[in-house]
Design brief:
Layout lengths: L1 H6 L1 H5 L1 H6 L16 H34 L17 H28 L8 E3 L2 E2 L7 E8 L2 E6 L4 E4 L1 E5 L4 E7 L4 E5 L3 E6 L5 E5 L5 E7 L11 E7 L1 H12 L4 E2 L1 H7 L9 E3 L1 E2 L3 H6 L10 H9 L95
Parallel strand pairs: 3-7, 6-12, 13-15
Antiparallel strand pairs: 1-2, 3-4, 4-5, 5-14, 7-10, 8-9, 8-11, 11-12
Helix pairs in contact: 4-5
Length: about 400
């Protein structure tokens, strides 16, 4: 009995692995069986590439076993040629076959890279269903926080936390950014992953073709709560999406800058949350890293730099940036977060007025040691409202010291 156990010991070691195989039958291969057309094309690309590579791998593995068996020492009938060193026919096969496969893979990659570019608007929602010119994609603004996701629907004027609802068969245009560190926005059933980075905006175009409940998550390590940084994806028909948006409108609450700064604090296992309203321009403020009141936006800073900067008068207005040097973004009290102060901001009621007619509030100017500007009849400086307007600096009054 002991001898029998020793004989079958290698097979017994494989028994636990064999027992777990039936459990794997319930796993869904969502990457190869997705619910979105873009993800399906990407899955097909993986399958075709794998088959092309197997055209070389399988014959090589088979020939390795064949040669080892045919030319074994016990086979006296095998041809023995110790001086053989070259065969033109064999060289052609060895080099031509891999070369052809590399050419096919290169062509496939070139075409797929351009057709599946995440920044490229969709030309179809499914095979044989081109996107009509009058169809407008659904805009969804995505912000990766520590450790949760915020989704803003500017068309509907609503926002959610850790819940993404999408209508089926309608193109979706994602605008993606982050608050502190780099994350990766990934919904396997919808499309491939794309990075979410602070101070930058990435785009992703996709479509969902089947209703259902799916999962999204961050595919890039971003700290202690990374493993729980997941969100629900709900695919529904057009009527269902309209009903969901109406219900969210009745949930109450507004995602303004103050609410966003509270939400920005690092936390894990955040429940699904809905906001009936969103402050205008919030996502652009996130991208330009100026959600905090009185902080200069990156676009305004770059516009000032393009005009030569503020010179010596503005040197003390620059304070060290501290985002994630010593603590997570949003983890400290607001006064402890260093920033570059905005020089002036449009006051309530002045947003729609021409630049020269706007009032100027000098209170945000908090530069250490910087003399206050003199009283000017007209403001000649205004923070850039967009990338196309370049502000002109205010002439600062000379110091009396």
């Amino acid at each position: 009995m002991l001898a029998l156990a020793r004989r079958f010991r290698p097979a017994l070691r494989l028994l636990p692995a064999l027992v777990t195989l039936p459990l794997l039958s319930g796993c869904g291969m969502v990457v190869l069986e997705p619910a979105g057309d873009v993800a399906r094309q990407q899955g097909n690309l993986v399958i075709v590439s794998t088959i092309l590579m197997l055209l070389i791998i399988v014959p090589v593995m088979a020939l390795t076993i064949f040669f080892a068996w045919r030319y074994r020492a016990a086979n006296k009938e095998a041809t023995y040629k110790p001086d053989w060193d070259h065969s033109t026919q064999l060289e052609l096969v060895i080099w031509a076959a891999p070369l052809l496969i590399i050419i096919c893979l290169g062509a496939l990659t070139w075409v797929g890279t351009h057709l599946l570019d995440p920044y490229r608007p969709l030309a179809r929602t499914a095979p044989g269903n081109p996107v009509a010119t009058e169809v407008q994609p659904l805009d969804v603004q995505v912000v990766a926080l520590d450790w949760k996701w915020v989704f803003i629907y500017p068309e509907q004027g609503i926002a959610t936390v850790n819940e993404l609802a999408l209508p089926v068969d309608r193109p979706i245009r994602f605008r993606i950014s982050a608050s502190s560190v780099m994350n990766s926005f990934y919904i396997p059933a919808l499309a491939g992953q794309i990075y979410a980075m602070p101070g930058m905006e990435t785009k992703l175009h996709a479509v969902l073709n089947r209703p259902g409940n799916y999962e999204g998550f961050s595919a890039n390590y971003s700290g202690a709560g990374f493993s729980k940084m997941r969100f629900k994806v709900r695919g529904m028909d057009g009527a269902g999406f309209t009903t969901w948006a109406s219900q969210t409108k009745g949930a109450g609450g507004t995602l303004d800058r103050a609410a966003y700064l509270r939400l920005e604090r690092p936390s894990e296992n955040e429940p699904v949350r809905r906001f009936a309203g969103v402050e205008a321009g919030l996502f652009d403020a996130v991208v330009n890293m100026c959600v905090e009141p009185g902080k200069m936006c990156m676009r305004d800073m770059m516009a000032l730099d393009a005009k030569g900067g503020l010179g010596l008068a503005g040197i003390h207005n620059v304070r060290p940036l501290e985002y994630d040097k010593t603590a997570g973004r949003g983890s400290g009290p607001a006064p402890d977060r260093k920033m570059v102060a905005a020089l002036c901001l449009p006051l309530p009621g002045d947003e729609g007025k021409p630049v020269m007619e706007r009032r100027v509030d000098l209170s945000p100017l908090t530069g250490a040691g910087l003399s206050r500007p003199g009283s000017l009849p007209r403001a000649t400086f205004i923070a850039a409202a967009d990338e196309t307007s370049i502000p002109t600096p205010i002439p600062f009054a000379k110091s009396n010291r």
